[in-house]
Amino acid sequence: MSRVKVIKDVTELVPILRAVSTNVKKEVYTDLAEGWQTEDDIEEKYGDEGKKTLKIFDKMDLVETRWQHTGRETQKAYHTYYSDVHIDASVPIKEISDVLFAAMMDEDEFEELEEQILESVKEGDTFANDISKKIGYSGITLEGLVKRSIKLKYKGHRIEEIKEGR
What we know:
Layout lengths: L3 E4 L5 H6 L4 H12 L2 E2 H21 L3 E7 L4 E7 L3 E4 L5 H12 L2 H16 L5 H8 L3 H10 L3 E4 L2 E4 L5
Parallel strand pairs: 1-5
Antiparallel strand pairs: 2-4, 3-4, 6-7
Helix pairs in contact: 4-7, 6-7
């Protein structure tokens, strides 16, 4: 079945761009597009980076899951959710540059910002507008950073920490 990801909000480009930001991510995505793969299959082929990639794809809603019997046990299997992308967005250059900045930011710089945002959330400062001012980036950049993160998520106008096991 062919499913189309319709992008109307430019920040939704971040997960798509991050899905192919390294060779391992690109190869894992390609494998998942070709068929169902368990976490063990991916870890065996790509190591810890492949396992981490599955978590990223799951958080970004790029994969669907099902339980699959492997002969030894029942494991969660992954498959790409979308086979096509349709982009229907008209945005000012400033906004698209903010989104691309968040998506393509150096990993070390991103992790530093992610930790700043996480600290703010843990301190009770959860409103996106307040956090945006605190870290010195636009709301669009912040939204892109949160969509890139596997530790954070948006809930309305608030940012929340994603707890392990959720």
